[in-house]
Each structure stands twice: as C-alpha cells, then as structure tokens.
Recover the amino acids of this structure.
C-alpha cells in the first residue's frame, strides 16, 4: 500500500511539474511564427518575415520563426526601411532571443545601377573587380540592403541569443551584424553575390557578411560565402601593416567557425579579427585573400587556424591581403593547416601594391609590429617563380620574400612543419627566420602543373592533397585517436578525427603535415589554366562529415 502511494505521489509530482512548465512556457510566450509569404512584408502583414520578426521581438521569451522550406523571399523595397546606419540600410533588428529555421529558404535581392558609361552593373556584374563606387552621374535602379542587426549598436545586449539555421542570401550587401554583448549562432547557409550599391554620394560603403561588435560571440558552422565584393577598390596599406576588412570580421569579440568556406570573395582579406579570439577550424578559404589578427586597445588578439586550408590566388583583386598576418602584438597559431600561395596571380603593375617596402614581401606569411605567427604541423608552399606572363610582364616581383618579419614581428615553426624554400629564401635562411633548425624546407609537397610560361597549383580538391610518398606524408607520430599528438579542436576541446574532405585524420597512428590526409592515387590534369574551386565537392564532403 505504501509502495503504491509513493508511486502515485511521484506521478502526481511529475504531472504537476509538467503542467507548471507548460504554464510557464505559455506565460513566457514561447511561440512559433510561420513564414509563408515570398516577400518581406511589414510588421502587420501576417505570414511575412517582417511580421514574424516583429512578433517575436514583442513576445516575451525565446520564440521560433519557421520559414517555409525552399522559399525565395524578395527583400526589395520601395519605401525607406526602419533601420539605417549611414548608407547601410537594414531590413530587420532582433531584440529578443529567437530560433530562425530557414529550411533552405533564400533572401533574394537584385541590386543594380547604370553607370555613366551606360553599362548596367548587377550583383553578378560588378564594376571592375572591386565592387563599386556609385557616382553622382550613375542611375540607381535598386539599391543594396542588409538583412539584420542583433540588438542596438552602442548598447548592452547581454542575454540576446539568436540562432539562424539554413537560411541563405543572394544579392544582399551583408547578412548580419551582432551588436555589443549578443550571441549569434549560424548553422548552415550560403551567402552569394553580396555587393554594396548605395546612394549617389561617391562612396561605396562595404561591410562584412557577418560582423561581431565588442563582447559578442559568433558561432558559425557550415557557413559558405561566395562572391562577396563590398568595396570599390582595395584598401591601401599603412607603412607597416596591410589593412584588412574581411568577409567575416570582429572587434573585441569571439569567433568559433567550423566546416565553413569563403570562396571568390574580394572583401580585402577573408577574416579580420581585432582583439578577442577567433577560432577557424576545418574550413576552406580560397581565392579570397588571407586572414589577419591584431591586438586592440582593449583586448589581446588571438587567432587559431586548425585543420584548415587557405588557398591564395586572386590576382590584382586581392593584392597585399594574400597573406596570413599577425600584427600589432596579435598572435596567430596555424595548426595542421595548409597554405598554398600562387604568386603568379598577383598584380605587379600597381605601384602602391601594399606590401610595406614595395617588393611584395610577406606573402603568404607576415609577422609585423610585434605580432607572433606560429606554425605547428602545417604546410606552407608558395609558387614565387619569376617567368614572363602572357602579357609580357612579370609573374612575381623578383627579389621578394614569401616569409617576412617587420617591426619586431616573430615567425615560429615546430619540427613537424613544412615551409617550402624559394628562390630568395633557401633552407638555411628559413630555419634561421623561424628559429628552428629542424623545420622542414625541402622535398616534394603538392602537385604543381606547368605550361610554357608558368607553374600553378591544381584545382581543388585535388590541388590540396599532399603528394603520395612526398615530404608531407606520415610525419607526425602518435597522432591517432587518443595519441600524444592527437589534434584537438580549440573550440570545444574535442579530438578532430577527419580532414577537410572526410578522410580519417590519421592512419596507422601517423598524421600528414597540413590540412588534408594523404592524396588520391592519381590527380587528373586540370581542364583549364585557371584555378577553379570545386565548391560542390568540398561542401558535400564537409556536410557528410558534419553528419558523422
């Protein structure tokens, strides 16, 4: 009898707790708002994205916005929008925590203008290579819009937590800006053809696709940025540091980025971090410049690049940002990663050039203004050959140094890193520069193709595979599951078990140098002279790995 009473007593307590929870949930307004209309709408237009965001902001508690699967939402507008920041106009502002389920839907805009020379510029046909200035004589057809801000700029937004899943954008100026103290999580999403066409003031304002203000946390997983071209021209250098803007940027904030890609984006470097910590894990940066970290006035800057590939091409559109740069006492750790730099594609005709002393030094590695750049089990291979180009000019500035220290900067490498020697920096010079007589500098590393005038790396993914039986294969011992040299994710402390393409990160207890484990038995000949990133293969492999 007593046992039966206790059983009913427990059931009564559990039921009471459930009812209490449901009652609290209802009181807190935990509601799902369904988006079913394919235009942005207004705050009172039920079923639109504008209505869902407004409703969530005005309903207490964490809500859900659920967008109909695969829908393309036209975010063009005919009237002034409610949130303006200079020329930057935002569709929305999140002021309460929410989960946004994009379900593969798209925010779509078609910004365009007619230049004074009567040329129509669209999101896929920007002016020159650099994005756009909108001049006074140009005719605006549809101006650019950015998606959303988290919280209010300059205010404390502590506790504001927004998660966006599988929501894509095409043709916007930027996607999202997290204001002070907020937390943003982006799980999946493609952001393509991001251009900045604003008013006729003679200034083309550009912003990162994703940006974090002081005190924010950005958690990005499975994010893919392609063709982000926000600026009218590359930013000029200072005498001792290359200026970065970044497709992803932060100030005194935290970035945790994994399984992501930035491709064919001319945003003045792919990632810029100024104070705080940026973790870049199992990600690919291709034809988008490099990454930069520096200390801010408030916080030390730390960037960790783990199990990632930085594939630097891009020619004149990128110029001096084709580098990994640790500046102004910032610290960069490059671990089990690969950096491939195709020097032939860099424009040498620009007298400004943006490389401190005018000689193209420090691409792909720069430590300047007391910055520290440290390599661990990473492969750094530049092609810096000096051969005549198709146009009769030079492929690469002769006499330049791929690895450079300026103004107290410090380059370091461990005995498991491979730093390829060049025509101007031989093995002895590299070992002295990197403060390690055991750093590896010689031997075959990656497949290089040649035609009558140049060498070049192969297309991705094959171009990033180390050569079988080459100097990168089976180098790091005790690197298997649980081994002393296992690869640890700096974001969550877990062990990294797969490379960028889903291969086991070690074999027989050994790990290869760089970001990709072992190569295919045969590398097919590229079909063209250009380097074309096979994004679909990379994304498919990455998504397969995420499912594991």
């Amino acid at each position: 009898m007593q046992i039966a009473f206790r059983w009913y007593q427990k059931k009564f307590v559990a039921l009471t707790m459930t009812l209490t929870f449901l009652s609290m949930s209802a009181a807190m307004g935990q509601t799902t708002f369904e988006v079913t209309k394919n235009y942005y709408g207004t705050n009172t237009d039920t079923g639109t994205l504008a209505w869902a965001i407004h409703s969530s902001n005005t309903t207490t508690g964490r809500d859900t916005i659920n967008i109909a699967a695969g829908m393309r939402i036209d975010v063009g507008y005919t009237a002034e929008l409610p949130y303006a920041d200079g020329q930057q106009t935002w569709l929305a502002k999140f002021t309460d925590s929410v989960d946004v389920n994009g379900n593969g839907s798209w925010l779509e805009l078609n910004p365009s203008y007619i230049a004074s020379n009567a040329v129509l510029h669209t999101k896929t046909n920007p002016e020159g290579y650099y994005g756009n200035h909108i001049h006074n004589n140009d005719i605006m057809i549809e101006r650019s819009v950015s998606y959303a801000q988290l919280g209010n700029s300059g205010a404390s937004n502590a506790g504001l937590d927004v998660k966006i899943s599988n929501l894509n954008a095409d043709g916007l100026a930027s996607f999202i800006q997290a204001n002070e103290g907020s937390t943003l999580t982006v799980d999946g999403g493609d952001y393509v053809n991001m251009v900045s066409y604003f008013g006729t003031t003679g200034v083309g304002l550009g912003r990162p696709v994703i940006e974090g203000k002081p005190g924010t946390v950005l958690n990005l997983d499975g994010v893919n940025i392609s063709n982000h071209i926000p600026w009218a021209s590359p930013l000029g250098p200072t005498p001792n540091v290359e200026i970065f803007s970044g497709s992803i940027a932060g100030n005194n904030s935290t970035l945790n980025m994994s399984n992501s890609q930035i491709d064919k984006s001319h945003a003045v470097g792919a990632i810029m971090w100024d104070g705080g910590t940026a973790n870049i894990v199992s990600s690919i940066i291709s034809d988008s410049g490099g990454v930069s970290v520096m200390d801010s006035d408030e916080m030390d800057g730390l960037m960790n690049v783990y199990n990632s590939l930085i594939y630097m091409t891009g020619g004149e559109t990128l110029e001096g940002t084709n580098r990994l740069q640790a500046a102004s006492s910032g610290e960069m750790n490059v671990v089990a990663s690969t950096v491939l730099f195709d020097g032939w594609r860099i424009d040498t005709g620009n007298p400004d050039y943006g490389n401190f002393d005018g000689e193209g030094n420090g691409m792909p590695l720069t430590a300047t203004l007391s910055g520290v750049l440290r390599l661990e089990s990473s492969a750094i291979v530049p092609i810096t050959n000096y051969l005549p180009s198709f146009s009769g000019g030079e492929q690469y500035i002769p006499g330049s140094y791929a690895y450079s220290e300026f103004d107290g900067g410090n380059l370091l490498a461990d005995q498991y890193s491979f730093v390829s020697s060049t025509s101007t920096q031989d093995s002895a010079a590299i070992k002295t520069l990197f403060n390690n007589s055991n750093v590896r500098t010689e031997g075959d590393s990656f497949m290089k193709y040649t035609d009558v005038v140049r060498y070049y790396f192969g297309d991705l993914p094959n171009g990033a595979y180390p050569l079988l039986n080459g100097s990168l294969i089976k180098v790091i011992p005790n690197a298997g599951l649980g081994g002393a040299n296992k690869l640890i994710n700096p974001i969550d402390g877990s062990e990294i078990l797969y490379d960028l393409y889903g291969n086991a990160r070690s074999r027989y207890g050994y790990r290869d140098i760089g970001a990709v484990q072992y190569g295919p038995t045969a590398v097919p000949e590229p079909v063209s002279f250009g380097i074309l990133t096979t994004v679909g293969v990379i994304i498919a492999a990455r998504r397969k790995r995420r499912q594991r």
